């Protein structure tokens, strides 16, 4: 399939060997989970495989702004598994304080953020926005980063009044 290209961002988590069968048994961590995702208006849809133990939250201020919410929840696609099924996302290149550049993809029609990836032709992995995934209710985060900029209330919602529907 595709040649193995090391990527600094994912190197720490370990990358799959370049030989990977089409049916893809994910050996490294847990089993691979097949997911599909779509934006709110449905123009953009995609499929990918993920390791469901790799779901994480980011409390950085960029994620707060870019999501318009308190934090972002993301899961990386397994190398080579991401397939765009429909639509052409709009890309916004975000440059981090470190100088690291990420291509943020969102729907030009409804504005839903769908993924971020290295700004290269065939990025090996895509940071999928968990809220776009069909199986998101099964995806529980295992890590949260940038807690130093977390909105203080966002770490504990137990005291917030609950309603089954619109309050
Ligand atoms: Zn859309
Ligand atoms: Zn972030």
Q: What would your notes on this structure say?
A:
The protein has helices at residues 8-11, 61-67; strands at 33-38, 45-50, 56-58, 72-76, 83-86, 90-95, 101-106, 113-117, 126-129, 143-145. With 167 residues, the chain is mainly beta. The protein has a single domain (30-151), classed as Metal Binding Protein, Guanine Nucleotide Exchange Factor, Chain A, CATH 2.170.150. The strands form 2 sheets. It has a 7-stranded mixed sheet. The protein is globular, with a radius of gyration of 16 Å. The relative contact order is 0.21. Mean pLDDT is 87; it is low at 1-25. Bound molecules: zinc ion (ZN) (2 copies). Residues 39-41, 43-44, 107, 109-110, 112 line the site of one zinc ion.
Topology:
Blueprint lengths: L7 H4 L21 E6 L6 E6 L5 E3 L2 H7 L4 E5 L6 E4 L3 E6 L5 E6 L6 E5 L8 E4 L13 E3 L22
Parallel strand pairs: 3-10
Antiparallel strand pairs: 1-2, 2-5, 3-4, 4-9, 6-7, 7-8, 8-9
The protein binds zinc ion (2 copies).
One zinc ion binds next to loops.
Output the keywords.
disordered N terminus, seven-stranded mixed β-sheet, Metal Binding Protein, Guanine Nucleotide Exchange Factor, Chain A, 7% helix, 167 residues, mainly beta, binds zinc ion
